[in-house]
Amino acid sequence: MKRLTKLTAVCLSGVLICSGLFGCKKESSAAPDGNEPGASIGSEQFTPEQVFLRLTGAEDIRLSVVYTEVETDGTVDINESAVVEKDGDLVKAVLADNDENNVYYYDLDASLGYEQNADGAWESVSVAESVPDWEACLDLAFAIEGMSSRIEWLFSSDTYEPYDAETGRCVMKTDEMVGFFGENWSEMTAYLMQSGDTYYLYMSTTDDVGTFTYKVVMEYADVSVTLPS
Fold first, then answer.
1. CA angle 90, 93, 94 (to 5 degrees)
2. Is residue 134 very low, low, confident or very high in pLDDT (cuts 50, 70, 90)?
3. Which of 66, 76, 163, 186 has its CB 3.0 to 4.6 Å from that of 81, i.e. a possible disulfide?
């Protein structure tokens, strides 16, 4: 992990643009927060692999990814996020880099993305080769802080201690945290957690410079996505 150095969402937006999903519009909706999840209010034994299988097989889901870096005086250096909503084969993705949000749409069944022309009207473009399925959308969301290349590690039982029924968590092994974060952090926290029909991946580190937080929320509920017209 980088220690309070600027990482923008431009790379993530660029991946989407290069993928053929050019269209975007600025939105003012608030980004998801990076606060630590509350205590679990209901959980059944799970493995990290089961969490990932449910994520990749979801028909309806609201997935949010947020990455923040905050200095010890409270100054927010970085606040990046992605919110991806899946309604069957329809997907809406909102990407935020600090105060600027961009929105993108997919029809996965038709292999179409949607772009706005110079007049502000939405037009469809083919994404059959570049963003063909839901797993490609997941890669885009996890691209924040380069985590798309670490998905196998993030959802591997080898990365975590066994499930704890009392907390609803699989806590990341200490040597895995040290191997990823480095040894200079005074505090390190990382775990997968279930609370009802929501799963969380939460990672946070603190040292004398500030705090880094990476949080993924997987909410399984009815989601409605309407393609632009």
1. 150
2. very high
3. 66
